[in-house]
């Protein structure tokens, strides 16, 4: 009901519905009719082509077996008849028979024939491979020989998987080969009495080669089956289909006069076609997924679908071009205003014409431009203010320390302690060289540690009796970038407010680590006098204030260090980072500096 109301209440919706119905509905009807006709045409052509392939394959196999069966003419050779009829050995007959076999091979070029064997009813035989031999068992016990005695004019084609196949009579075993045996009787000329048998062993690859070379679709194949539907010879492609072959009622398909069948009993439909081999009595069976032989029809269906979709797109495009020509400028202006309201100040209206909507769009563009200019100006001013604040904060750290250091150098010079003067001057020089850092705000952690060591070297010379320090930093952290002069103010606080008022010598220890793969923690720990609970609470509160606490008369330059470092870290890295202070009165203080480890 809501859809119907929207269509009937909007002119644009009515036009869109009309365009879609008038354009797409006829095309869909024509497409369905075309697809139906093309499907039938493609299917019939594919079926005929597949049947032709099966017939051609059967013809090829018939030709091979017809040519091979010419070797059965050896039964008429007088030497063969004499050898099989006689009970005595005759080397002359044997040599003549073998020469005759060789001449047949040279004449007809039987590449697939592996061996020719002849044997009489008493087990005396001759073969190409072994020559004359004598069997110890009764030949007629084999059901094939027994059948030929009853039907002397028949010729048997015995496949490799026949349960009563003929074992090699001459005792020779084929390795890695399957054979097809062609068996026929040898009869006496006058009485036509069966006096023996001739067996031609043929390599089954001459049939498999035909099956492997003939392709149906992409995954279809041909194989050879007997009249009962049992698979006799399978191509290599059919190796994974043995279970399918066992489950199909091929015999009923072979008996079908139409010789083709679409099977939908298991999974996807498959097209099956058969063709008889007249020479062997076998059947050529072809199997292919139905989807593959009607693939062209599916291509036509896809083309029809694409055509319909393109027609719909064209209809919608035409609808918007015709029905929204007048409202388009207003809609564009509305969209740009929504973008500007969401914070995207790059939105700009491009309108043509000289009407009121164009004037409104130009006014909107001017307004957005002025807002963007004011924001850019405000951002620049804030950046300059931030830089000025940082420089002022950093400048508050140095003066007292420099004054005291120079005073210590003067005192050492007056005391003629030249080595210590040189050491302190070198440390002071390195300290200020790193502090300047060519105007850079970030330096490597290795340089920051070097700066701190210079500072501690100077302070240790001044406060030798109260100061020891330890820096335990893994070298793998040296390459991380850090805001310069981060550690020195914290260490200065530890010295002046922790160790200076402690009895005996104190220790400042600096360590660092990576936390959770994202945060870089630097820990400054001292064993000084610590901070009272009230003072610690006030200190933490001051760190949260946006302004710097006022300097008191009894504080040295280090009094500002903690707050200044905290502000600088938050200005550069964000509100999630900064300085954390933990302390126990009388035991010491721990300051943890947290910054991101992937900055810069």
TrEMBL record:
GO terms for cellular component: plasma membrane. Residues 483-599 form the Histidine kinase domain. It is found in: Cell membrane. InterPro entries: Bact_2-comp_sensor_kinase, HAMP_dom, HATPase_C_sf, HATPase_dom, His_kinase_dom, Sig_transdc_His_kin_internal. Gene3D superfamilies: 6.10.340.10, Histidine kinase-like ATPase, C-terminal domain, PAS domain. It catalyses: ATP + protein L-histidine = ADP + protein N-phospho-L-histidine. SMART domains: HAMP, HATPase_c. This is histidine kinase. Its main location: membrane. It is a multi-pass membrane protein. Its EC number is 2.7.13.3. The chain crosses the membrane at residues 15-35, 303-322. Keywords: ATP-binding, Cell membrane, Kinase, Membrane, Nucleotide-binding, Phosphoprotein, Transferase, Transmembrane, Transmembrane helix, Two-component regulatory system. GO terms for molecular function: ATP binding; phosphorelay sensor kinase activity. Residues 324-376 form the HAMP domain. The keyword Membrane applies. Pfam families: HAMP (PF00672), HATPase_c (PF02518), His_kinase (PF06580). The keyword rRNA-binding does not apply. It is an enzyme of class 2 (transferase).
């Amino acid at each position: 009901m809501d859809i119907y109301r929207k269509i009937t209440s909007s002119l644009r919706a009515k036009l869109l519905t009309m365009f879609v119905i008038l354009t797409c509905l006829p095309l869909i009807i024509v497409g369905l009719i075309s697809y139906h006709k093309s499907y039938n045409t493609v299917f019939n052509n594919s079926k005929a082509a597949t049947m032709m392939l099966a017939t051609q394959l059967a013809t090829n196999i018939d030709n091979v077996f017809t040519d091979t069966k010419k070797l059965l003419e050896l039964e008429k050779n007088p030497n063969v008849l004499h050898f099989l009829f006689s009970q005595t050995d005759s080397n002359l007959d044997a040599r003549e028979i073998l020469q005759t076999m060789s001449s047949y091979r040279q004449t007809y070029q039987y590449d697939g024939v592996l061996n020719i064997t002849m044997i009489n009813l008493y087990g005396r035989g001759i073969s190409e491979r072994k020559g004359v031999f004598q069997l110890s068992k009764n030949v007629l016990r084999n059901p094939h020989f027994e059948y030929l005695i009853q039907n002397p004019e028949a010729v048997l084609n015995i496949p490799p998987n026949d349960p009563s196949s003929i074992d090699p009579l001459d005792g020779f075993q084929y390795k890695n080969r399957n054979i097809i045996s062609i068996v026929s009787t040898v009869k006496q000329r006058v009485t036509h009495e069966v006096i023996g048998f001739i067996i031609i062993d043929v390599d089954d690859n001459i049939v498999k080669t035909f099956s492997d070379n003939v392709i149906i679709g992409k995954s279809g194949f041909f194989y050879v089956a007997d009249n009962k539907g049992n698979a006799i010879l399978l191509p290599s492609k059919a190796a994974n289909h043995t279970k399918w072959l066992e489950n199909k009622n091929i015999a009923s398909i072979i008996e079908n006069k139409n010789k083709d069948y679409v099977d939908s009993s298991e999974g996807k439909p498959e097209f099956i076609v058969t063709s008889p081999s007249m020479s062997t009595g076998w059947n050529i069976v072809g199997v292919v997924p139905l989807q593959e032989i009607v693939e062209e029809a599916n291509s036509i269906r896809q083309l029809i679908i694409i055509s319909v979709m393109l027609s719909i797109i064209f209809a919608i495009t035409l609808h918007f071009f015709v029905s929204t020509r007048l409202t388009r400028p207003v809609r564009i202006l509305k969209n740009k205003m929504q973008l500007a309201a969401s914070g995207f100040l790059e939105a700009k209206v491009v309108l043509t014409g000289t009407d009121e909507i164009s004037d409104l769009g130009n006014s909107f563009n001017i307004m957005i431009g002025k807002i963007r200019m004011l924001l850019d100006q405000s951002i620049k001013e804030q950046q300059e203010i931030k830089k000025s604040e940082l420089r002022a904060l950093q400048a508050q750290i140095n003066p007292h320390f420099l004054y005291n250091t120079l005073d210590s150098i003067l005192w050492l010079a007056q005391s003629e302690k030249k080595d210590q003067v040189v050491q302190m001057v070198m440390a002071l020089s390195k300290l200020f060289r790193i502090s300047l850092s060519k105007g850079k705000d970030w330096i490597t952690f290795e340089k920051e540690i070097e700066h701190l060591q210079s500072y501690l070297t100077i302070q240790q010379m001044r406060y030798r009796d109260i100061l020891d320090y330890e820096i335990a930093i893994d070298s793998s952290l040296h390459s991380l970038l850090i805001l310069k002069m981060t550690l020195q103010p914290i260490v200065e606080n530890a010295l002046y407010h922790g160790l200076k008022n402690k009895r005996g010598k104190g220790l400042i220890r600096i360590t660092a680590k990576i936390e959770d793969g994202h945060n870089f923690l630097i820990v400054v720990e001292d064993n000084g006098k610590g901070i009272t609970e009230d003072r610690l609470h006030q200190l933490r509160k001051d760190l949260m204030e946006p302004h710097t606490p006022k300097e008191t008369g009894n504080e040295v330059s280090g009094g500002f260090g903690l707050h200044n470092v905290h502000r600088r870290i938050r200005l550069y890295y964000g509100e999630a980072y900064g300085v954390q202070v933990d302390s126990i009165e009388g035991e010491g203080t721990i300051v943890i500096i947290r910054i991101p480890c992937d900055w810069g």
